[in-house]
Amino acid sequence: AQKVTQAQTEISVVEKEDVTLDCVYETRDTTYYLFWYKQPPSGELVFLIRRNSFDEQNEISGRYSWNFQKSTSSFNFTITASQVVDSAVYFCALSEARTGNQFYFGTGTSLTVIP
Amino acid sequence: KAGVTQTPRYLIKTRGQQVTLSCSPISGHRSVSWYQQTPGQGLQFLFEYFSETQRNKGNFPGRFSGRQFSNSRSEMNVSTLELGDSALYLCASRAQGTGLMNTEAFFGQGTRLTVV
């Protein structure tokens, strides 16, 4: 069963617009962790943010913010004032207590920021 | 601080051959995981090593194997290559030994394997 769903396959925005990437997860664990990673064309996955299941406080870090809602099993990620350098594929990932360090990745959302 | 280093970056192999990929984690990191990324299946977990022991394994055939050395460097091996093994293979390193799940993983740039 798919554990992480990213329904948005591709998104295009004009530079300086805000963009929200959606992520819905599925787990039976009460202890789990959620992550967002960015994959530029060079290939490596770059860590962006992390949230554990006990902390639903939403935060802002620079131009990044996230909205974690356990009631809807969602972990959405927002980029404010998008820039061309934000163009990349973004992955949401889940790590569960019972399956150790394994990441379950979503299928990714390809973001294109148009200058 | 050096990041995760994967070698080689690109590889072309023929069906039936075997291949070995290498990953050097961030200094001090003892957990190394491997992932396969393909357009059809996305990112899939292969296995994780910690202190030279395989701690977790994904749903891949026995042709996929790995090991970790005392300096935490890891290798993965794929024997009897098939066309479907063409993929980007990513290595990730993580820091401490316990409570690892709450830390982020740092990824290398990957090895692009093409099987012809």
Q: What oligomeric state is this?
A: heterodimer
Briefly note the structural class of the backbone of chain A: mainly beta
Largest interface: A-B, 27 and 28 residues
Helix content of chain B: under 10%
- String of helices and strands of chain A: EEEEEEEEEEEE
Radius of gyration of chain A: 14 Å
Structural class based on helices, strands and sheet pairing of chain B? mainly beta
What would the principal axes of the Cα set say about the shape of chain B? globular
Coarse morphology of chain A: globular
Along the chain, the helix and strand elements of chain B come as EEEEEEEEEEE
Q: Tell me how many strands of chain B there are.
A: 11
Q: What is the percentage of strand-forming residues of chain A?
A: over 45%
For this entry, give a set of tags.
heterodimer; A: mainly beta; globular; B: 116 residues; mainly beta; 7-stranded mixed β-sheet; 4-stranded antiparallel β-sheet; 11 strands
What does it look like?
With 115 residues, chain A is mainly beta. Chain A has strands at 4-5, 10-14, 19-21, 24-25, 32-39, 46-52, 60-61, 64-69, 74-79, 88-96, 104-105, 109-114. Chain A is globular, with a radius of gyration of 14 Å. The model of chain A has no long low-confidence stretch (mean pLDDT 91). Chain B has 116 residues and is mainly beta. Chain B is built from no helices and 11 strands. In chain B, strands 2, 4, 5, 6, 9, 10 and 11 form a 7-stranded mixed beta sheet that branches. Chain B has a 4-stranded antiparallel beta sheet with strand order 1-3-8-7, with no helix packed on it. In chain B, strand 7 and strand 8 (74-78) form a beta hairpin. Chain B starts with a strand and ends with a strand. The model of chain B has no long low-confidence stretch (mean pLDDT 92). The chains are: A mainly beta (115), B mainly beta (116).
